[in-house]
Amino acid sequence: MKSLSVCALFLILAAVVSAQQNVPSVFLPQSQNTFLGGLISEKATDQEIGLTLKDAIARGLKYNLGLSLSAQQARAARGTRLEALSDLLPHLHGSVSDSVEQINIAAFGFPPSPQIPGIIGPFTVFDVRAYLTQTILDLNQIRKLNAETQNEKAEQFRYQDAREIVVLITANLYLETDTATSRVEAIQSQVKTAEAIYNQANDMKKAGLIPGIDLLRSQVELESRRQELIGAQVDLEKQKLTLARAIGLPLAQKFRLTDPIVYTPLPSMTLDEALQHAFTTRADYLSSQALVRAAEYAKSAISGKYIPSLSLQADYGDLGVTPTNSHGTFSVSAALRIPIWEGGKTQAENLKAEALLEQRKAEFEDLHAQIEQQVRTSFLDLNATGEQVEVAQRGLSLAQETLQQSQDRFAAGVANNVEVVQAQEDLARAHENYISALFANSMAKAFLARAMGGAEETAQKLLGGAQ
Q: What are the structural domains, with CATH classification, of the chain?
């Protein structure tokens, strides 16, 4: 679980950096970011496709590399359990042999005599036989099976947890891409405004109404916005590539997002309800519980070594000189194995089992506190980011009004364009503040869905507009 947290943290940090400026991409080793990879099973088309958040999550759950690897680990755990089960089930096999033998009876301590020759044979022996072995009672093997059953459950819960990680990462990448799209659109609008202001200043300069410095200020502002637009467009294309790879889309496939981020208040929910939901449905929490039970069974399996075990062996077949000259024979035996002394091996195994059990219990208690911390933190983030969105909305409206008034004052000749340039920069910051606040609020909802568990069902409900 620690590697998954590192992966999610990397994604969040990448989003913060890309929001500030365009920087060269940083690539993690594949072993550290398997949830950023995907299994591409189709070819790109020339037609641009629309992609909803629901579609992106569905593709991630189908093609994500990390989830595919987790599924194979769950299969391996099932194989281990079946292997433990086989030790308690009947083992049946058969054999057919046809041999030619010659025996020297003197080698067995029988002196030759006129009645019994020293060398017997050669003669043929034909044997066709079925063998059966069955464990009747072995507490050690029974408890081993119980332990492996719990380990299999733990891996199944880990797979479910991996699905929730895929939902979180896919939602994160989708929101990052949508944020990058909004940033491009906002800067494009700012470029158009800067071009209009520059053209206005140019006309006024030609008419002799303003000095050249006012025109230069407008031109510098225009070029600054154009530079930001280039960086934002590159960042958008990078985000699209990252999203496409995580959900198994061909990297050459053109697509557009059809679920723009909108602000919606958090559905009515109390902190206690969220905590109860988390401790009931969090797959990693249930996996940790299963690991504790597995360690308890493993420890009791060691104690089972002190108890005698009972097994049965039997065989039945045809024995004779030839297949047509043979007769049925059989044997049945029961064996009671009584452990007496194994050189301290059992005590050593018991010591290791106790240590593992204490480790699992400590991990479970820590995870309990971690989940509560995550839920409480998510509620704090949601409240804070919700207020930030509302403040950013008001700030954006004020910045737009300020720019309009400064343009009117400049056109009327009662002020130079210093006010206009400053208002343009204020509007750009207001746009960025609103976009960042909206992204932070949406990610807080996604993290709450993860913290509560059942992210597949709750993520889109909490995200509201992105459905």
A: 2-91+139-307+343-463 (1.20.1600.10)
